[in-house]
Specification:
The protein has 383 residues and is α+β, with helices and mostly antiparallel strands. It is 28% helix and 24% strand. The strands form 5 sheets. Strands 1-2-10-7-8 form a 5-stranded antiparallel β-sheet, with no helix packed on it.
Length: 383
């Protein structure tokens, strides 16, 4: 749940969010999990957790980060991450920081939040009914660059966002750019704001593309990942083409975590299928086909369990489970080892057949059997 207490004018946006991570012990040590998104200012945010630790903290600590989904706006934010002790709130552990979230630094947090041994301790209060409780408080500074510049021309329509913000826009530009709005503006003529999905940052970017008076921020892959569902849903075809072209131009950097590049491409693949973007789907499959079997295996599964059993168990990643049966079969066909080639046929001379192997095949594969020494095949025929 989230609450936005930002006022008008120059007051900063301030949001609090609580995330209850259920079934924590069932999360695999190699998994990365994200909260639902919440909004503060121009950005959509998420909490990112590594149950088994990240980087140097892997295997020893819980790692927790705040991630800006609209880092193209490079917001400056103060934030406070808190791991709540559910038995005694006074023992809760917090991390305070101030950061500018941008394309090359879109997340900040604490890699070594708490030792895993302490987290899992009996009666410690961190895990109650196998649930972990995290809270975050985010304060984003308001800046003039976040305001929509109308050039003094009055807007004639308002978009109502899920966060409660109302964004002014020009109906004629929306009609020209989107078949969806051509119908929507007729249906709601004179009836007030039009409700839409998406964050303030997403719509600020979309409107900046429609109106040359608006300054456009620099796109990032993570921002495009956030923009695509909204641009697709409200049918901005030219903008959709531009975003897919941007992804193609950045295809060598589709991952924002090089250690898990194949896994992130699968994440893009799931988005491409959900939005029925064939060009992006083929781009992702093409990149996956160029990877090693080991890389692809890590993209599909993560190690499960703990201790000695961990290497014996594997779990399918969440993004893979969201793929359709057809696409999953195609993905698995890429990871499957190539069948062993059938042995080349060997010409057999009947005169020397006594030492020639006999080839055949069965349900268990190809086989070769050497005849017993001295056996004769058709001894009365010359060769």
């Amino acid at each position: 749940m989230a609450a936005d207490t930002g006022g008008d004018g120059g007051a900063p946006w301030s949001t609090s969010y609580t995330w209850r991570v259920e079934d924590f012990s069932k999360q695999t040590e190699d998994e990365t999990i994200w909260s639902n998104s919440f909004e503060a200012g121009v950005c959509t945010w998420k909490l990112r957790v590594y149950p088994g630790g990240w980087s140097a903290a892997k295997g020893t600590h819980l790692s927790v980060f705040l991630e800006a989904q609209d880092a193209m706006w490079a917001p400056s934010a103060e934030f406070k991450l808190t791991l709540v002790n559910q038995a005694d709130a006074s023992k809760s552990s917090s991390h305070d920081a101030t950061s500018t979230f941008k394309a090359d630094a879109f997340a900040d947090g604490r890699p070594k939040f708490i030792e895993l041994s302490a987290l899992r301790g009996a009666g410690a209060g961190w895990l109650v009914n196998d649930a972990l409780l995290l809270t975050v408080e985010v304060t984003v500074k308001r800046e003039d660059r976040f305001q929509l510049d109308t050039g003094g021309v009055p807007c004639d329509v308002t978009l109502k966002l899920p966060c409660g913000a109302e964004v002014p826009a020009y109906s004629q530009l929306l009609r020209l750019a989107s078949p969806f709005f051509r119908g929507a503006l007729e249906d709601v003529k004179g009836s007030g704001p039009i409700p839409v999905d998406g964050s303030l940052g997403t719509w600020a970017y979309i409107l900046s593309c429609l109106c040359p008076l608006h300054d456009q921020p620099e796109l990032t892959l993570l921002s495009v990942y956030t923009l695509l569902p909204v641009v697709h849903k409200y049918d901005f075809p030219r903008l959709l083409t531009r975003l897919v072209a941007f992804i193609k131009g950045k295809s060598t950097a589709l991952s924002h975590d090089p250690a898990s590049s194949a896994a992130y491409i699968v994440r893009w693949l799931a988005l491409a299928e959900r939005l029925q973007l064939d060009e992006l789907r083929e781009l992702c499959l093409g990149k996956l086909r160029g990877m090693t079997r080991e890389q692809l295996q890590s993209a599909i599964t993560v190690q499960a369990g703990s201790g000695a059993d961990r290497l014996k168990k594997q779990a399918v990643r969440k993004d893979v489970r969201e793929l359709s049966h057809e696409l999953l079969v195609e993905l698995l066909s890429i990871t499957a080892p190539a069948p062993a080639p059938a042995p080349a046929p060997v010409p057999v001379c009947f005169k020397c057949a006594a030492t020639a192997p006999v080839f055949g095949s069965s349900a268990f594969g190809n086989f070769a059997v050497a005849p017993a020494q001295g056996a004769a095949f058709g001894g009365g025929f010359g060769g």
